[in-house]
What we know:
globular, 2 domains, 8-stranded mixed beta sheet, alpha/beta
Amino acid sequence: MLAIRASRAFDGVRLVEGGVVLVIDADKIVGLESSGTLLPAGAVVLDHPDATVLPGLIDTHVHLCGDSVDGALDRLEAYDDAELARVIDIALRQQLAAGVTTVRDLGDRRFAVVERRDAAGGGSRPRILASGPPITSIRGHCWNMGGQTAGPDGLRTAVRERAERGVDVVKIMASGGIFTPGTDVMVPQFPDEELRLVVAEAHAAGLPITAHAHALAAVEQALAAGVDGIEHCGCMTPSGAGASPELADRLAAAQVAVCPTLGFTPEVPPPPPVLELLARMGLARKDLYMHVSRLHDAGVRIVAGSDAGIGTGKPHGILSQALIELAGCMPAADALAAATSFAAEVCALAQTKGRLRSGYDADVLVVDGNPLMDMTDIRRVRGVVVAGTVVHRPSVQN
C-alpha cells in the first residue's frame, strides 16, 4: 500500500486544503483523506511538503509519431518501423515526465500508435487512446499518414477499417491544415453530405468522432454534421477569427467538446506558415486566447490538448504550457479540470480516470507549490504514479 502526503490536493474538480493523504492499494485509489488519518501498518509513505497532488494529466490531442522538430509530420513517410517505434517511445517518456498519464493520439502513420497501444508492457507508460490515421481528402491535410480517401464508398470503408482495428475515436480533417502544402485552412475538405455520412458511420459503429477544423465554414459544417468534438476551432475567415456569440451558444447547446490546442513554447517563434497566416488575418496569440475565453464563458466544453509532437514549439510534454495559457482564459480550477476530470469524460474514461476518488485508477501527479494559485507550478513535477507505481521522480526539481 502506498500513501502520498501533501499540503493540498486538486481532486479533479476542486481544491482540498489543510493537508491530505492519498491512499493507493495496488493500482487503485483507496481514498483521499485528511493528513491525520491513521495509515495501515506497512504502508509506504511519500511525504511532499508544500506540494499538490492531482490526477495524472490527460492530453487529448497528441501526435506520438512526431519527433517534436519542425517538419515532424512531413518525415513520417521516411520512417521504417524501427524508427517509428523509437520516436513513439521517446514521446511517451517525455509525456510521462511532464505528468501526462493518458494521451489521445489524433493522427498516426498507418496505425502505428494503435498497434503500440495494443502491445504488451504498457504499465510504465501513459495510457494510449488512438484514432489511427485521420480521414482526409485526396492530398488533403496530413494525407501522408495514410488516411486519404474519396467518395461515399471510400469514406464508409475508412470508418469500417478503423472500427475493425478498434480505434478509440475517429478523426476527420474537416478543413485544410497549415502544414500541408496545397491545402487551405479556410476551406472545408468534404461536402456537407460526406461529412454527415462519416459522422453517421462512426456513430453507428459506436465510436465518437472529432473534426480538425480551422475555418469558420468547417466549424459550422462539423457542428451541423453532429460531431462530438472539434480540434483547434479557430473559426477563421480571411478577415479574422473567433466564434460569434450565436455560434458559441450553439456549440455549448450541442455539448461539442472543443480542444483549442493551446500550448506554445514561449521562447520558440511560430513557424513561418503560422506567422504568415496570422499576419494575413491581422491576428496575434492574444486574439486566440480571447476567443477561447468567450467560448468558455458561453458554456462550451473546453478540453486540454496540445497538438504535441508536430514541431519545435509543440514538443511532447507541452501540456503544462497549454494549462498555463488556459488559466489565462478561464478560472484555474476549470483549466485543471480540462486536463483531468473533464478530459476523462470526453475520452469516455469518466469512471476510471481524471479524479482522486476511491476505485479510480491510481494515476497521480505531484507538483511543488499550488497550481491553482500559480499555474506555472504545474511544471514543477515532484513525482508521477501510473497504475499505483512511482514511475518518475526527478532528482532535481524544476
